[in-house]
Amino acid sequence: MPRKLVIGNWKMNGTVATNAALSTSIAEGVSSLRGVEVAVCPPLPYLSHVQVTLHASAVKWGAQDVSAAVDGPYTGQTSASMLREFGCSYVLVGHSERRHGLNEDNVLVAAKAMRALEAGMAPVVCVGETLAERDAGQAEAVVLAQLEAVISKLGSALNGIVVAYEPVWAIGTGITASAEDAQEIHAMLRRRLVLSDAAVVPLLYGGSVKPENASSLFRMPDIDGGL
Residue 1 pLDDT > 70, yes or no? Predict the structure, then answer.
């Protein structure tokens, strides 16, 4: 069975004390797992703290966003090289909360993915449709357009990414796409990646993943883990 990848996005939550307790608990739990890679993406101010807590464990860590710029006058942004200095293995790009809350478009997301790769990190490219787009029968077209922008930008470097399908209507709502619905989109993404000689790119499902539904989702042939 292929190795699964599970990444925890902590979003804007946590404190020094609670993060330490959670990191320690995750590290202890992961120590007995086989065939699973685990990573966490804490809020930026806690990145160095998580690094110290997890550096001797099997758990990897990453960031929730990265700048599309290399360096310069970009107040409030963080470059890929800065994140890599803190040992980040992954960085989320194009999360729906940034696409829809901060108006990040496909071109910007692709540029961020490129910066992450250049710094030696794997960008976790998030794609997904809104409920209105799904109801209008546009889910596959929307998701494919989001992926196409990254494929066009990265070219032969495409195999270095991770793709996370996260239907917007299922994020933080407690509603989860059925395993079969998720598999349908994942299969479409896999077919497109195969055309670009990138069949090995991990495909994660994100959107209210929890103990009650994880096993059914992860049994699907094209779902390689969860965000």
Answer: no
pTM given for the model: 0.96
Task: Tell me which amino acid residue 139 is.
Answer: A
Annotated catalytic residues are: 95, 166
Q: Encoding tokens for residue 189?
A: 């993404």
Q: Hey, what are 54's tokens?
A: 């997890």
pLDDT at 92 over 60: yes
Return the closest-CA partner of residue 43 out of 83, 81, 70. 83
Write the pLDDT tens digit of every residue in 3-42.
Answer: 899 999 999 999 999 999 999 999 999 988 888 999 999 9
pLDDT over threshold 90, residue 176: no
Cβ–Cβ under 8 Å, residues 206 and 167: no
Burial of 159 (0-12, 13-18, 19+ CB in 10 A): middle
11: left (phi over 0), alpha (psi -120 to 50) or beta: left
Q: Residue 82: phi, psi to the nearest 5?
A: -65, -45
- 211/112: higher pLDDT: 112
* Size of the chain, expressed as the number of residues it contains: 227
Phi-psi region of 87 (alpha: psi -120 to 50; beta: other; left: phi over 0): left
Instruction: State the first-to-last Cα distance of the chain, in angstroms, to the nearest integer.
Output: 19
What pLDDT, on a 0 to 100 scale, did the predictor assign at position 207? 84
